[in-house]
Structure formats: C-alpha cells, structure tokens
Amino acid sequence: MKNKVALLLFTVLLAQHAGFLFAQSGQYKWEQGSSGGYAYKYVSNDPMKTRFYTLKNGLTVILTENKKEPRIAMKIAVRTGSNNDPRDHTGLAHYLEHLLFKGTEDFGTTDYAKEKPYLDKIEALYEAYGQTTDKEKRKALYREIDSVSGLAAKISIAGEYNKMMSDLGAQGTNAGTWLESTVYDENIPSSALNKLLRIQADRFRNPVLRLFHTELEAVYEEKNRALDNDDRKLLYALHENLFPTTNYGLQTTIGTIAHLKNPSIKAIKAYYEQYYVPNNMAVILAGDFNTNAAIKLIDENFAYMKPKPVSAYEHAPEPVVKGPVVTEIYGPSAERVQIGFRTGPEGSRERLLTDITGAILFNGEAGLIDLNLNKQQKVLSASAGLDFPYKDYGIFRLSASAKQDQSLEEVKELLLGQLDLVKKGAFDESLLKAIVANQKLSQIRGLSSNENRVEQLSSAFINNRGEGWQRDVAYIHELSKVTKQQIIAFANQFFRADNYTVLYKRKGEDKHIVKVEKPAITPVETNAGLQSAYIDKINEMPSTPVQPLWIDYDKAIGKARLGPADVLYVPNKDNDLFSLYYRFDMGQWNNKKLSVASNYLSFLSTDKYTSEQISKAFYDIACSYDVSVSQEFTTVTISGLQENLEKAVQLFEHIITHCKPDEHTLAALKGRIRKSRADYKLNKNVILRGLQYYATYGAKNPFNYVLTNEELDNLKSEELVNMLHNLLQYKHTIMYYGPAALDKVTALLQRHHPLPAQFLSYPGGATFTYSRQTANQVLFANYDMVQSEIRWVRNTDAYSPEEELTVDVFNNYFGAGPSGMDNLVFKTIRGSKALAYATGAYYMIPNKKEDPYSFFGYVGSQADKMNDAIAGMNELINNMPESRAGFESAKASLKSALETDRIVDEGILGSYLDAQRKGISYDIRKVKYERLDKISFADISNFERKQLSGKPYTYCILASDKKIALADLKQYGAVKTLSLEEIFGF
Fold first, then answer.
1. For the segment 862-878, what is each residue's pLDDT rounded down to a tens digit?
2. Which of 241, 215, 269, 275 has the alpha carbon at shortest distance from 82?
3. Is residue 927 part of a domain?
4. Residues 639 and 580 in one domain
C-alpha cells in the first residue's frame, strides 16, 4: 500500500459570469438540517453542499453529491496512524492497514473453522519468535511459521477482497497510513454502492489477519525501497529534527527493522480493537448518489459497531527548536538543500499566515522565489510552502537544488534571503489579491473531481475532527483579509535565525543503511480459482447497471476555420474557466532545439515587458500560459478566467512575437540544463526509463535523441528566438474549451491571433525503428542501491483496432487490473511468493497506427531475490495459469469501466485527436463494449501463446554490481552493460 501524507486541499468557491461571488463574513457557519429521517450539519455557503452526520454509535458520515460522472469515491478514514504505534512495535498501524485487505471470517477463506487453528498456531509462534534471541532457535521457529502458514494458505483465498472490488468495477483500490491517519480508498460505479457498503462494513466487523508472513515480506520490501529513496530519508530527518521529543519525529510510519523482524499479531489485534471504533472513524462519499438513500444504507450496514473511549495521542509540547539544526544525508541521487520550520497546528491563525507566506514566496508564477531565484536562474530550482499540516503541528519547508559549481550552503543563503525580503515587506501588496484569485481559480478546477472532494473532507476529519470544515469553507475569505503589515509582523516573529533545521542532501555512500534480510519463504497457495460463498451473497444483491455513453465526435465538437487553421470547440457549461490550445504536429523529433527554445521563452523579456513583469501580469489576471514540447508535438496552452481570455491571448501573442534574445540568460539556461542532465544520471527512475527506451528501439532511440553537450554549448540566442517568432507560422490546430460561443471565440482570435495565408511546412523529423527481439538479451546499468529493478520488454505485432479489446482483457487478467492488485502477476509475485512490493505487467496499445504493440513487465525486488523474481515472472509469461474466476472478474471490471467512463469537457478534444492518430473516426469504447461478452478465456490464452509465451525478451536490469552476481545475468541472455552516456546520449 502507498503511504500518504495528509494533504491540505482548499475548498472551492463558485464563479459567476463577471467574476467571483464572495459570501459575506459571518455567512460561513454551522447550520442544522434534517431529511429522510436523519439530522445533519452543514456549513452555509459550502459549494460542495456537504452534509455531516453522526450516527447513534458515533460514526461520522460525510456526504457530498456530484453528478459529473456515474461513479462514487469513498474514503474510510480512521483517526490513528504511526503516532499511536506502541514504542516497542513501530510500524504496527501501517502493517495492520495491509492486513485489512486479507478478508474476514466470511471471505478470503474456503473454511474459516478449519483455517482458524492454523492461524492461532501462527499467532503463538510469532509471540515466541519475538521473545527469542537465539539465532538458531529463531530460524527453527521461522521454519515452523513458514510450514504452518503454508497449511493455512491451502484454506485461504488470497486477494478475494481485491477480486470483489474488481467485480464491482472499482478503480484505484488502495489505502495509506501516515502519522495521524489510516485511510482506505475505493472508487466504484454508482450502481454498486449498496454492495460496496456491505463489503466495507463486513470488512471491519471481523477482520482476519491471515497470510501474515508473506504480507510481512511485502512490508520488508517496502522498507528496503525506502532505504533506496533519498527523498524519504530527507522526510524522516526533517521530522526528527523538528520533533525531537514526540512521535512525529521519534518513529516512522513503516517502523524500525528490529520491530519489523519481530511482529506481534496480538499487538496488532489490540491496536485494532483500541482505535478502529465508530467514534474514531468516518465514512466519506463524493459522487453520483442520493444523499438520503446513502445515509440510510450506511446506517444499516455500520450500526453494529460499538463505540468506546479513544485516547488520542497526547504529548508534552515540543521544546523550542534551538538551531539551526544541521543534518547531512548521503545517497546516490542529486544534491539539494531543505530548510524546515515547525509551525502551529491545523486550523490555527499561524497556519493561515504560514500558508499565505508560502504563496508570497512561491506560487509557481509570481512569488519571490519564482521571480528572484527561478526566473533569474540563480539556482537550478527552488520552492517553498506549508507541506505538512498536522493536528498538533505543521511543517513549513523551503527546498532548492544547486546549479553547477554552486554549493548547497550558497543555495541555503539564497533561500533565507527570500525570507528576509518578506520580513522587510519587499513584495507588492497587490500580490496578496492575486494569490487569493489564483487560489480560487485552482479550487474551481478541482470541484468536479470526486477524489478531490473526499481528500479535502478526509483531511478535515483527521485534523479538525470535522468541526474544521467551517474554517475550510471560509478559508479564502479569511485569506483575503490578511494584510501586508500582518504578514511582515508575522514573518519577523516566526522566521527567526535560530528556530529551523537545515538538511543537506549530498552525493555519497550512505553508510547507515542496514538492509532487511530476506527470510526463507515457501511460496503459498493463493487458491485464485476459488471463491467463498460470501461472493454469491454479494452478487445476489440488486443493482442497476449504468448505461454507457459514447462520444459522437461530429456532435460533441464544434468546428470552424480561421484562415488556414482548423478550430475545434467544446463548450464549458459548468463554470467560467477556459482552456485554449494551439497544437502543432512537430516536436523534439522534428527539431532537437525546440524544447530548449520553449524553455528559453519563459526567461525572456520583450520590447515592452521584462520577464518578471510578464509572470506578474499573467498571475494578476488569474491566467497562465505554457509551451510544451513532446517527442512529436508542441502544444501552447493558455488557460484561466474567461473574462480575461482576451488579455491572456494578447499577452501571449505579444510574448511569442516580440521576445528578445539575451545571451546572458541563455548562458545561464545552458548551465542549468547541463546540471539537470547530470542530476538525471543520478536518478534511478530516469536511468531505468532510459534502459527501457534502449530495449524498445535500440541504441538510437527517442530517449537519447537530444542535443549533445557540444551542440548545447553552440546554441545561439538569435537562432532560438527566431524559432519562437516563427512558431505560429507553422500549421497548428486551435482548440477551445470554455463558456464562450464558437463564433465569439473565432472573432476574438481573428483580432489577436494573426495567421499566415499559408502555413510553413514542418521540418523533417527523425524516425525511430522499433527493435524486434529475436533472442534474449540483458541490458544492465549499475546503480548503488539495495533493491534491483527489472523490466521485461518485447515489441510485437503492428497496431490493429480489432486487437484492442483482447489486449484490455488480457491486461486486466494478467498484470494491470483497474484495482492494481487483482491480477495474476500481483497475486503470484507478491501475494504467493513474496518476491516484491511493486510488480506488474502491461501489454501496451500504441498511440498511433504506424507503431506496434509492446509488452512491459516489472518487478522491483531485493537484490538477493532478483533471480527468484525473474524466474517467477518468466513462469507466468511462459505458462499463464487459467483462473476462470479471475477471467470473469477481469471482464466484469472492464465492462463496468466502460459503462461508467465519461469522457467530458476538454477530454473530448484529446480523445478525438487520439482516435485520429490511430486512423479511426469513432469512439472505440463502443466497439469494445459490444464485443466484450463474446470474448473467451481461449481468446486471451491464444493471444498470450502467440505473442508472449516462449518468446525472446530484452531484460532491463538496474542494480548494484556489489549486490548481485553479474555472472547470473548470462543465464537470461547476452549481457550488454550500458554506460550512462550510451543511455542518455550525452
């Protein structure tokens, strides 16, 4: 499961035609209501119209309707996390979260009465194991644990919860544990709400902690991945330094190695009984449902829960930070610096002031750090803001990466210098109004998202015990009342010279890493083809399928001509926001210099405005622009408030046609690009992506098709500026999504978007040939880490629309189901064999008709498990096992996804362009849906045998040559060790 940081997501205010409608002070207050026999609370002027219920047993229920799509996002939030872990069992809350996916007495087992004696035996063995220090006795006990676990597994049904969710059409099944929270996530079709609530209620009624030792090994893997993650180490150090006496800093969510090696099932059960009680939990729904019906269903399902007193984590106040507290952290990734301040709790005045101070410093456009450091290229990149608002405290963090030949100490002083500017009041007071306007803009964009809604409400429940929602709804109104003088006074009082921590992430060996050693685990039976009687009961529950909706592109998209350009139009009927696109069918492959030119533009001045003035001008009108260059496309995006569309278009047109060359700026940009390139070579994820491109295309591939360092150095300002000046002379399609009528948009563009009588032809582009794997090959790159990362690559047949449905069903069944966990690869590699925390496989549908299909497999495992992991994946690829239940589940989840998928708003434009690239003019989802019921297991089995089984692959392996035996790689094929220069092209 993923660990989640409780994110602060602001509430959303409605936009009116001529601007924003502000509710008056005092209009944000708790009100009482009653409907359908249930009393509830709500906050006046809450645009989400959220209702807060408290059931008789104390369970909080939070409901907000949103009819945008026929789906419902759910979070079950529990006010407990690693802060409540016992000191002698850290990591307990997180491990419990994993185990709550293993089922109950009713599901996840074929016969609980037969299974229970084994589970009791395993529990007793772990108690003895944790109390034993003799190494040989511990080994003997673990062998017995492994043996009894194997017997228990013959009765259990691994992954049955995930299968049920997949059958319901769930997407993104997951959970997360953090310091103060454990939250369980589902997203289901609206027709399945009754089934979802029944399963969730039963899930927490009588959970069974089965398949314990294999899931524990998955947590070991997660711990090892954390040891390889320098960002995670920075996060831990930040908390340790700011919270030296409380659990915020004394213990981590994933726990210590010593505690992971000595788990106690009894302690986990006691923790569950103590904290998983209704008066400490919330059921939160956002989406397409009837609120009165939903609250009744929730009450009926969860009324069995019995409340009990809950002791929240209490602690003495942290002492004043006496700093600066300096910590150096070592690892293979790029160097950077972070500065952290401990702030007041969520809901406090201090929290509000640190938030707006963060926006003054960094808002992505016109903050002090944006203009003075990023815009002027004084660092590689920098940011600031309130990152972690907790119930008792918060963390304000400044971060930056250094340029070439720049020390981290210099970067730290530059960051602190921006804080000094705030203290001196060296910022425009108008910035405060612009911050408020842009906050509202971003919030309006998030209103249609069910996931955004439940995230906000979950955060409010965890941090503020629900009462804080009033503050959240009124947040922007309160933000708008903050004055410049208040900010100055606060900054001088809060940001002192002695109350912070400095973290220097330096490149070098981390000598403190102690790997979690792998135990001897015998693969357990998953019984993937079986199912409990409980599923039959769920299937018998009534539900009304959602009717699918397909796109008729001729009706959904308005079309016009503007000179030689096509105009595509989709109306926005929800709010007063617009997005305008100029899309060019040329990109990096047409000209390697184009991406540098687009980057260069953001630093250039014109004959009328400086670069800083341009950023401020866009931010002041709550609009933005971006010029994005991908491999085959360049896209100009202008977006924001419709009332400012004309101003935004005029401003962009002025910039693109009147930007001036600046050799000093280009020299700085070249230096930053060189440093970014050096940093890429230190990033394992980027290296692995480069390996995959090498495997897919060969030595000449899109990943390394970049300017050489010499070519970069030889770039001239005049050349890049001319490219920018001429950009709009090339053929491009204009696309608009917004509230204005099509004729109004074309008239506006007629005035401000001058077009030539005839477009220029695109420059000839590079072409890349997909590799044909005729023999097994290993591409190896060396990287200092605990884990090994393995990817399988194989290119297969040319694209055919008729093949897409088979591919979709195969992916759902084999390695990439919507829930991420209900597939063969996950259940076997992780669930049965405990070889990895992260694993999957995907047969990729190409983006255009000229390209072939490709297969990609992935396992990230401990280095000493690498050979077992490769063997495990190869066994699945070459001999795909048959599970009729799994196959039917794969079809059911795909059918549900097609029924509830709604391509709306500007997504219609993207879908239309994607279809064109594949050579089709219709919504291919309709064809898939009509054929889905007819597809059989034999179809995907024949497909797998034809395309994958027994076929040659290219293995991409990233690992430390000190942790694996390079000679082992030869058994998989001819080995080619790639240098970073070969991978990156520079």
1. 898 999 999 999 999 99
2. 275
3. yes
4. yes
